[in-house]
Amino acid sequence: MTERIVVVGAALLDDGRLLAARRSAPPELAGRWELPGGKVEPGEGPEAALVRELREELGVEAETVEPVPGEWPLRPPYVLQVWTARLRPGSAAPEPLQDHDALRWLAPDEVWDVDWLDQDVPAVRATLAGLASGAR
Q1: pLDDT tens-digit series, residues 12-28
Q2: Where is each Nudix hydrolase domain found (predicted)?
Q3: Predicted TM-score of the model (pTM)
């Protein structure tokens, strides 16, 4: 049995808005939107991986808040886990540095205005459900 590899996604929140990142690569994903993040490296915890990935991909200093309940299958052996996160005080504004060509802060009524990657849709739904129930 192949060991599963966790990919962490950030539901990065600011003033009730969710950050979406548009993929620039690979070609089959380019132009679609996702929660920023990436693979957990060996010996790294998912929360540390998320902070590192946000620094590498967006140039920000962030902190995780809480896990979004659930886990979503990607192509084997990958699974997606999502944490809500927020920018640390004094962090730079997010910029698309790596794997993305655009970012958008989406208010709750704008979340479905972008073409999310299929595998991110259930994670975004779960994030919104958590926000609607008052979780931060």
Answers
A1: 999 989 999 999 988 99
A2: 3-131
A3: 0.91
